[in-house]
Amino acid sequence: MTNPDDIPALINAIGAAARAAATELAIAPAAQRAKALAIAADTVWAQRAAIIKANARDLAYGHDKGLSAAMIDRLTLDEPRLQGIVDGLRAVAAQADPLGAVTAEWDMPSGLHIRRVRTPLGVIGVIYESRPNVTADAGALCLKSGNAVILRGGSESFHSSVAIHACLIKGLAAAGLPETAIQLIPTRDRAAVTQMLRATAYIDVIVPRGGKGLVGLVQAEARVPVFAHLEGVCHIYADAAANLEKARRVVLNAKTRRPGICGAAECLLIDRRFHEAYGPILITDLLAAGVEVRAAGDLAQIPGTTLAQEDDFGREFLGMIIAAKLVDGVDGAIAHIRKYGSNHTESILTEDDTTAERFFARLDSAILMRNASTQFADGGEFGMGAELGIATGKLHARGPVGAEQLTSFKYLVTGDGTVRK
Q1: Residues 6+ apart with CB under 8 A from 1
Q2: Most exposed among 28, 290, 373, 381, judged by the fewest C-beta atoms under 10 Å?
Q3: How confident is the prediction for the chain on average, in pLDDT?
Q4: How many angstroms separate the Cα of 315 from the Cα of each of 162, 166, 337, 391?
């Protein structure tokens, strides 16, 4: 047994075991991997009382650390949220298997028949903060895509993650798959993160799931390729041609449903013509819901608002705070988002098709929406069952990272004694 205090030896042992497991997963039948996930789902529900008890320890730890209300919300597990985890595991299990799928196929004049097929990436390292559900989501998606995974959860969610991980292991064992296919780093020591970032011999890609500080650290120090899940500075723009009741409903949901998630709206942009037609109603709705509105320009004259500072724009609040500003039409909104956005998710509220198309064409965020809440920026809501994060980069995976996005491909080439002239 490796000493958990010897971090380099611990990561090497975990990495070697993951690499060996990955070779088995790559050829494991789809039904076997789906069975492991189905049993894991049943086990999570059967163990819900024990998981909630473990989560209570994490919540006490989080309160002692002075976590914000939004962060405590992210950390909290109850029966409805555990039902969501169970549903996510079952949804991933039921999805079409991505491995071996032929994405392109063609014949060449030389006589070669060529197929491009999906294959696993290998070993994925996931480093995440206070959301314990990531343990289940990451484990499920990596297993579904034939990858072994090394999980390093946040210190706040340590006990919850251990309890959920145990359910995943039961699924692997029952399905006859290596239990080392899904491993959880058994220490809160931050040195484990550093060692993972350097483990090029074992880990094929790192996925950071957390705030700007974590992602910045991973990007700066990783020697392993990274799927960047950058901060969610999500914008919502109310155009002059927006439907008032739709706009009121969507803006409130985008900010207040769960303000601590990366898909929460952090900035409201309002066309001057909308404001002239309807007054401050979007702002007063937010204020009435308990949101602190940090307003710029004319909006700062609305009673109850707080005068915005320059650094309030381009900021991920992860709480009941939103920045707000008037802009001159869709081009004003586009210019603001280009300057302050994080390429995560933006939504336009408009009934004008031409304006919506301009917004979609001229912005390059991973997710662009029309007349819909930014809170839908979620792999589960995209039909993926779960997600490993919202990738904001442009290489390999972009947007919600589901099982399919955790695959690469290889070419299978068939000839008949074919030689090159």
Answers
A1: none
A2: 290
A3: 92
A4: 32, 37, 12, 18
Convert the pLDDT of each residue in 206-231 to its tens digit.
Answer: 988 877 777 778 888 889 888 876 67
- The side-by-side arrangement of strands in the sheet containing 265-271 is 306-307, 292-295, 321-327, 265-271, 234-238, 345-349, 367-370
Are residues 144 and 121 in contact, defined by beta-carbon separation less than 8 angstroms? Answer: no
Whether 396 is covered by a domain: the verdict is: no
Coil, strand or helix at 89: helix
- What's the structural domain count of the chain? 2
Asked if residue 365 and residue 239 are part of one domain, the reply reads yes
**Residues 44 and 191 occupy one common structural domain:** yes
- pLDDT tens digits for 104-114? 999 999 999 99
Domain that holds residue 182: 7-229+401-414
142 close to 25: Cβ distance less than 8 angstroms: no
| Alpha carbon separation from 61 to 54, 55, 69, 319 (Å, rounded) | 11, 10, 14, 20
Q: Is residue 126 part of a domain?
A: yes
Let me know whether 317 and 347 are in one domain.
Answer: yes
Please spell the DSSP secondary structure of 111-171, one letter per residue: S-EEEEEEEE--EEEEEE-S-THHHHHHHHHHHHTT-EEEEE--GGGHHHHHHHHHHHHHH
CATH code at position 107: 3.40.605.10
Q: Which amino acid is at 164?
A: I
The verdict on 54 and 195 lying in the same domain is: yes
Closest CA to 346 of 232, 234, 230, 233: 234
Cβ(344)–Cβ(230) under 8 Å? yes
- Whether residues 238 and 188 share a domain: the answer is no
DSSP structure string for 274-315 = HHHHHTTHHHHHHHHTT-EEEE-GGGGGSTT-EEPPGGGTT-
Residue 2, pLDDT score:
62
> Would you call 204 helix, strand, or coil by DSSP?
coil
pLDDT block averages, 10 residues each, the chain of length 421: 78 96 95 97 98 96 89 92 95 93 95 94 90 93 96 92 97 98 92 92 89 77 80 94 97 94 94 97 98 97 96 93 97 97 94 96 93 91 79 75 88 89 87
Cα first-last separation, the chain: 57
**CATH number of the CATH domain containing 300:** 3.40.309.10
Q: Are residues 33 and 95 in the same domain?
A: yes
